[in-house]
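Regression test attached.
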Amino acid sequence: MKVEITRDWCLKMAMLEGDSEIGAGLVAIDPVFEGNPMVTGSSDDRSVAFGRFVRLMRRNHGLSIEKLADDAAVDVAELVSIEDDTHHKPEVRTVYQLANFFKVPRPNLMQLAGLTIQHNNRLNDEAARFAARSDPVVALTEEERAALEAFVAVLSEQS
Amino acid sequence: MTVTISRVYLLDVANNTIQEAELWDAITEKHLADWEAEWMPELFKATQKLHRANVERRLWPQSRHWDWRRKASVLNGMLGNPGFSIVCGGLTQGMMIVDSSMKRCRIPSQKGRDLVYVEFIENAPWNRRELLFDPPRYRGIGTVLIRAAIELSKAEDFKGRIGLHSLPQANSFYANTCGMVDFGVDANHEGLRYFEMTPEHAEAFIAKGTSP
């Protein structure tokens, strides 16, 4: 992304900034990324993939969060947390309801949501790939749609 | 991955001159090597100086445990987590990682809308007076990186909306220099204060650097 910033703007803002401290982000010893982040299919990958999966499936169905909550009979606040907070641990019932609504096997979605111990290694690998490829912004791009469809195909496999 | 380098400028404090710098829309191996070989030793020495000067531990650099290699290795592969870095004088002067896909606005007028969330932002140790670098080498890293986050937000059609959790000693920068809305302490994020910028605040921030 090319960023156009003038010399005068930089100079003026540098003077306004002065000697301010600028640090932002969680303080502790990288608490977000505890464990081995390079292991493919880590719980981080899965939780990111689960949130993005729900969001992209919802958008693919053309549903608002409220409408999906109504149609799938799940709590709207939890749906927001699932989509927005990678640390959120979803309720078993919610994942069950979402699996039924999106017509994917419940055991696989439970594993993706981090509620069951992994028994499908391929699902973990695909979850990591899906998390890296998907980028839920405004409208589903062809690339996102392809990534979603490929992931749904893997998720739909009976283990 | 395609990397774009934009020309920006920093203020060289010792000489009171403006220096040409590079804004990269990525964090690459070169930047991480600078962090390991240049930032870390200086950060260690700065912490040692603060300790020997009997400065309270709570005032030591709060980012001293950050591992940018680890952050970058986890996040750089994600389409929704781009990184930015500034290079000047042959060295990395600041880095930032953002999340453009998973966070939403909290400001009532923008509630639920997408924003660019600044996951991590840090200045090189020699640019930080609080680490007893007097004078610091360069000024302007924070405002250029925040401007980059705003421009990314615009490019994503988020209209300049950004948010972040500030380290305690940076609260004033985000509230006053950047003009972001202070939501107060966020109990779910280690007690850090959450700040957010609306499209109007983003324009006001940019206008600060253009007004006579």
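Expected vs. actual: identical. The first helix of chain B runs from residue 29 to 52.
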